[in-house]
C-alpha cells in the first residue's frame, strides 16, 4: 500500500431504513439556487423557481360553451318561442348588448352579449327563415346560465396559478400560457456526471468476450436522468482500478453538481469506488434495508481549484434492478431537491394484491408488479435484482414493509412508475 492509500471506511456500515437514508440525504443536499428565464417552449420538465401569478381572469369574459343562441330568459315565456336573430357572434368578436326580444347567433368561445342570461345549443333550436339574420324557434327553454362559461371560473386575476417548486408538465405549461406568461423562471439544469464501473462491461456494438456482459445501467440511468431534466455528462465505463476511478472522479467533479456511478460499491477487493471517493473527498457507505438495493454510497468529491466547493457523489449498486430501484427511491428525490422541487415523494396508491408473497424478508421490498384488468396487481415471476425484464414488464413497485407476508386479497401500497418520472 502506498502512503497515499486512504483510510478504509469503518467495517460496520450503518443499516438504515430508506426513510432514514432519505432524511440524511435531503437534509444535506440543498437546492442549487441558480435560475434561468426560459420561454415556455423550452421549459418542459423544468422546476419553477418563481411562482406564476395571473394578471387576468380566465376566461377573460363570459363566453359560450356551445354553438347556439344567446337569449334573455324573460323573452321566452314557453318552449317553442320564436325570436328574431339580431346579431351574429363568432369567437374572437366583440358583441353588442342583446336587444330585448331577440336572440344572438353565437359560437363556442365567443363572448356572451351583455343582457343574455343563457345559451341554448343549436340542437335544441330550429332556424326560421326571414329578413336579415332570420329568426330562431327555441324548442326547449334552457335553464338560467346554461352553456355560459363564466369570466374567471378557471383563474381569478391576482391568484397564483403555479407555485415555485412546481415541475412543469404539459398541462402546467398550458396553464402558464393561459395567463399570458411569455417567460418562466426555472432552476437551471442539474449537471450529472455518470459512469459505470466494471471490467466485465462491454458496450452494445462491441463483440461480447467470454465473461463479459453488456452495460445496461448506462442506458437506464442516463434515461432516468434525462427524464428528470438533467444535463448528463456521460463518462462511460471506468476500469476497475483505483487510479482510473480517482481520475474519473476528478474529471466528473470539475463538470458536475452530482456524480452518479453504478457498481463497485460493495466491499469486494475489486470495488475501488470507496477508497477512490475517500481519497478525492469524503464518503459514507450505507446499507439501506431495502431489496433490491442495499449498498448506497453517498459523499462528495472536491472540485479542483474551485474554492472548496464539492460535487455530490452517489454510488449505486451494479445489479441492474438494484440501481434502477435505488435511483427511483433515493437519487430522484436528491435531484428534485437540487432543482428546488416542492414535491419529492412519489404518490402511492392502495391496491389489491392478486398474488401471494410469503417470503417476508427482513428488508423493505419493492416488487415489480403490473396492474391487471380486474384492478388488482400481479407480480413478475422472477424478482431477482439482475432481472431487468421485470422493470419493463411492470407498471410500478409494490412497497412491502419488512417482515410482512402478503396474501392474495390484501391491500398493498403501489407506486406506479408514472409517479417516479
Ligand atoms: P457490483 O456492484 O460491481 O459488484 O456489480 C453487481 C452485479 O451487477 C454484477 O453482476 C455486475 O456484473 C452487474 N453490473 C455492474 N454494473 C453493471 C452495468 N453497468 N450494467 C449491467 N450490469 C452491471
Ligand atoms: Mg463491479
UniProtKB/TrEMBL annotation:
<dbReference type="InterPro" id="IPR001453">
    <property type="entry name" value="MoaB/Mog_dom"/>
</dbReference>
<dbReference type="InterPro" id="IPR036425">
    <property type="entry name" value="MoaB/Mog-like_dom_sf"/>
</dbReference>
<keyword id="KW-0479">Metal-binding</keyword>
<feature type="domain" description="MoaB/Mog">
    <location>
        <begin position="193"/>
        <end position="337"/>
    </location>
</feature>
<keyword id="KW-0501">Molybdenum cofactor biosynthesis</keyword>
<dbReference type="InterPro" id="IPR005110">
    <property type="entry name" value="MoeA_linker/N"/>
</dbReference>
<comment type="similarity">
    <text>Belongs to the MoeA family.</text>
</comment>
<dbReference type="Pfam" id="PF03454">
    <property type="entry name" value="MoeA_C"/>
</dbReference>
<dbReference type="Pfam" id="PF03453">
    <property type="entry name" value="MoeA_N"/>
</dbReference>
<keyword id="KW-0500">Molybdenum</keyword>
<dbReference type="InterPro" id="IPR036688">
    <property type="entry name" value="MoeA_C_domain_IV_sf"/>
</dbReference>
<keyword id="KW-0808">Transferase</keyword>
<keyword id="KW-0460">Magnesium</keyword>
<dbReference type="InterPro" id="IPR036135">
    <property type="entry name" value="MoeA_linker/N_sf"/>
</dbReference>
<dbReference type="Pfam" id="PF00994">
    <property type="entry name" value="MoCF_biosynth"/>
</dbReference>
<comment type="pathway">
    <text>Cofactor biosynthesis; molybdopterin biosynthesis.</text>
</comment>
<protein>
    <recommendedName>
        <fullName>Molybdopterin molybdenumtransferase</fullName>
        <ecNumber>2.10.1.1</ecNumber>
    </recommendedName>
</protein>
<dbReference type="InterPro" id="IPR038987">
    <property type="entry name" value="MoeA-like"/>
</dbReference>
<dbReference type="InterPro" id="IPR005111">
    <property type="entry name" value="MoeA_C_domain_IV"/>
</dbReference>
<comment type="function">
    <text>Catalyzes the insertion of molybdate into adenylated molybdopterin with the concomitant release of AMP.</text>
</comment>
Amino acid at each position: 500500500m502506498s502512503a497515499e492509500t486512504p483510510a478504509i471506511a469503518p467495517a460496520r456500515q450503518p443499516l438504515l431504513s430508506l426513510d432514514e437514508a432519505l432524511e440524511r440525504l435531503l437534509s444535506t443536499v440543498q437546492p442549487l439556487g441558480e435560475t434561468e428565464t426560459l420561454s415556455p417552449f423550452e421549459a418542459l420538465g423544468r422546476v419553477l423557481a418563481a411562482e406564476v401569478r395571473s394578471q387576468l381572469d380566465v376566461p377573460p369574459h363570459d363566453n359560450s360553451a356551445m354553438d347556439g343562441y344567446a337569449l334573455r330568459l324573460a323573452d321566452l315565456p314557453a318552449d317553442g318561442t320564436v325570436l328574431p336573430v339580431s346579431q351574429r357572434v363568432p369567437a374572437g368578436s366583440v358583441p353588442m348588448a342583446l336587444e330585448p326580444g331577440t336572440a344572438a347567433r353565437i359560437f363556442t368561445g365567443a363572448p356572451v352579449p351583455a343582457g343574455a342570461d343563457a345559451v341554448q345549443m343549436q340542437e335544441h333550436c330550429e332556424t326560421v327563415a326571414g329578413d336579415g339574420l332570420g329568426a330562431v324557434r327555441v324548442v326547449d327553454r334552457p335553464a338560467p346560465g346554461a352553456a355560459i362559461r363564466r369570466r374567471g371560473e378557471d383563474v381569478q386575476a391576482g391568484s397564483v396559478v403555479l407555485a415555485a417548486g412546481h415541475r412543469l408538465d404539459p398541462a402546467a405549461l398550458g396553464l402558464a400560457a393561459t395567463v399570458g406568461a411569455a417567460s418562466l423562471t426555472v432552476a437551471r439544469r442539474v449537471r450529472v456526471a455518470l459512469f459505470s464501473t466494471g471490467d466485465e462491461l462491454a458496450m452494445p456494438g462491441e463483440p461480447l468476450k467470454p465473461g463479459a456482459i453488456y452495460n445496461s445501467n448506462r442506458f437506464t440511468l442516463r434515461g432516468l436522468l434525462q427524464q428528470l431534466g438533467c444535463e448528463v455528462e456521460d463518462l462511460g465505463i471506468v476500469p476497475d482500478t483505483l487510479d482510473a476511478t480517482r481520475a474519473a472522479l476528478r474529471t466528473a467533479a470539475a463538470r458536475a453538481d452530482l456524480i452518479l456511478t453504478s457498481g463497485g460499491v460493495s466491499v469486494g477487493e475489486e470495488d475501488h469506488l470507496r477508497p477512490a471517493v475517500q481519497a478525492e473527498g469524503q464518503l459514507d457507505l450505507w446499507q439501506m434495508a431495502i431489496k433490491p438495493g442495499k449498498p448506497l454510497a453517498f459523499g462528495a468529491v472536491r472540485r479542483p481549484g474551485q474554492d472548496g466547493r464539492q460535487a455530490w457523489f452517489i454510488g449505486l449498486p451494479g445489479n441492474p434492478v438494484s440501481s434502477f430501484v435505488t435511483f427511483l427511491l433515493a437519487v430522484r428525490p436528491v435531484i428534485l431537491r437540487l432543482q428546488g422541487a416542492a414535491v419529492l415523494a412519489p404518490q402511492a396508491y392502495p391496491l389489491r394484491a392478486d398474488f401471494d408473497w410469503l417470503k417476508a424478508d427482513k428488508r423493505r421490498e419493492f416488487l415489480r408488479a403490473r396492474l391487471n384488468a380486474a384492478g388488482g396487481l400481479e407480480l413478475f415471476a422472477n424478482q431477482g435484482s439482475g432481472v431487468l425484464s421485470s422493470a419493463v414488464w411492470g407498471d410500478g413497485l409494490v412497497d412491502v414493509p419488512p417482515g410482512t407476508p402478503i396474501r392474495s386479497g390484501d391491500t398493498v401500497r403501489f407506486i406506479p412508475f408514472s409517479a417516479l418520472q
